[in-house]
Amino acid sequence: MHLKLGEVSTIVVSSPLFAKEVLKNHDPSCADRPETLASKIMWNKYSDIAFCPYGNYWRQMRKICIVELLSSKNVRSFESIRLDEASGLVESIQSSSQEVPINLSEKIFFYISSITCRAAFGKVCRDPDTLINVLKNTVVLAGGFGFADLFPSSKMLNIFSWNKLKLSKMHRKLDSILEDIIDEHQQKSANGSGESGDEDLVDVFLRLKNSRTLEFPIENENIKAIIFKMKEKWMDGFI
User: Fold this and answer.
1) Is Transmembrane given among the entry's keywords (predicted)?
2) Residues 6 or more apart whose Cβ sits within 8 Å of residue 130
């Protein structure tokens, strides 16, 4: 079924035969995500993994994630973080007053937030409330199409989109937090305090950035987009 959403063509596939054609036989042709205002602003012009166009850059970043970030060795290296945060979660529940209801969803949300922050940044984020609010608002705004997404040829809608103003404001807050984190890691590396084998995700990306061996060099903008996207995907089940 072909739907026309504004200027955007959308194909709805409900037949198993055509689903196979789309998801298997012609997978590369259908692999790209649609370009939206939210993904362009929040993920630095599609420089993350989820929204970047299918191609050599995507394959490079996917390989980095599989080999450097999400390998079984790296996952095991974060075991102490998981155990520490799980112990803190259990302790906070046990110490709660029996007369006051426990918001278990909130506690689990902050438990996961702490784990992902420590794995990605090496410590709990100094401004977790701002980061969590940005995550929540981004998921809401990126969850559907705005008028600017439905009519991409309209320069007026792209310039004066209310969503664009809100997204740009959130992006500036997020960018400030992540830039400070990257600066701290760069200073630590410059002082010689970083050790191989004891790396968080930002350390890994900075090491690859400084190696200059990648086909597509990565900069701070790429690192911020990928780290934010990974954190959002790990946490969006609780938002």
Assistant:
1) yes
2) 173, 177
